[in-house]
Amino acid sequence: MHKHITWFKTCLLICLCACAVSIKAQTTDDAVATKNTQGEAADAAKQLTDRDPLVRQRGAEELARLAATDWLHLVEGYRLQEKNARVRVALDWALYRMGKDESLYMVVRALDSAHDAQAAGYLAQLETPQPLYPVLPHVNGNTQIKLLKILARIGDATTLEQIKPYIDSFDPLIAEAARQAEQDIKHRLANQPSDATTRPRQVHKGKPPML
Questions:
Q1: Mean pLDDT, to the nearest integer, of 71-86?
Q2: How confident is the model at residue 192 (pLDDT cuts 50, 70, 90)?
Q3: Is the dihedral of CA 132, 134, 135, 136 positive or negative?
Q4: 111 found inside a domain
Q5: Which has the higher per-residue pLDDT, 83 or 202?
Q6: Hey, is 83 helix, strand or coil?
Q7: Is 185 a domain residue?
Q8: Does pLDDT of 91 surpass 90?
Q9: d(Cα 140, Cα 204) in Å, to the nearest integer?
Q10: Which of 140, 137, 95, 89 is nearest to 117 (CA)?
Q11: SS3 for 111?
Q12: What distance, in Å, lies between the first and last C-alpha atoms of the chain?
């Protein structure tokens, strides 16, 4: 009996040691990953001071990719003083990714500008189409068409109900964009595996814009 107890204690001790090593290794890996991310964000933030607007744009896009919330206030300051339109759009996208919901509306506004392709590229990266729903009724026809094209790419089953009113629009271009979006979304849904999981969603909730 004594031997069995000793053997059990030994096995338990080995298991506890193994768990401790595993937890320590995971903690170390997490710390390294966090440190690396912080370093990448710091490097990207430095690019915002560069004289070349393309470098500043890349810096803003990297901060957006990292969703570097620690740099929110700094980026807000750079956004106020930035004179280059392309960089401003990139900074707006970075601010939205950092959690400033209202900055999404500035990116949407850029769809009705010479930087529409840049803005559309950012909006197509949204994890879910839901942030675009409250914006859609408050923009002009040209922007609605471009939003419908983006929704055709990233929309899901919930999008179909949102775009339904636009299918009967008096503007033939809006109606066509809505019909195409509906067709593309239905085709994509029909071809999804039945056990497919949805993408992780990060929905920023904000008030409808005054556009």
A1: 96
A2: confident
A3: positive
A4: no
A5: 83
A6: coil
A7: yes
A8: yes
A9: 23
A10: 89
A11: helix
A12: 80
Side chain identity at 18, as an amino acid letter?
A: A
Give residue 2's pLDDT. Answer: 53
Write down the pLDDT at residue 49: 94
Same domain, 137 and 209: yes
Q: The tokens of 52 are what?
A: 């070349």
Token pair for 87: 């960089």
Q: What is the pLDDT of residue 203?
A: 45
- Record the tokens describing residue 106, joined without a space: 């500035």
Decide: residue 72, CB within 10 A, 0-12 exposed, 13-18 middle, 19+ buried: middle
Same domain, 94 and 135: no
- What confidence score (pLDDT) does residue 29 get? 47
Domain with 66 in it: 39-100
CA distance 32 to 183: 45
Site of tokens 């506890």: 16
Please compute, for residue 192, the number of CA atoms within 13 A of its CA located in the half-sphere on the CB side.
14
The amino acid occupying position 33 is A
Please state the domain count of the chain: 2
Task: Report whether 145 contacts 173 (CB < 8 A).
Answer: yes
DSSP state of 171: S
Per DSSP, helices labelled H in the chain are: 2-47, 53-66, 72-81, 85-97, 103-109, 116-123, 141-154, 157-167, 172-190
Q: How far apart are CA 113 and CA 90, in angstroms?
A: 14
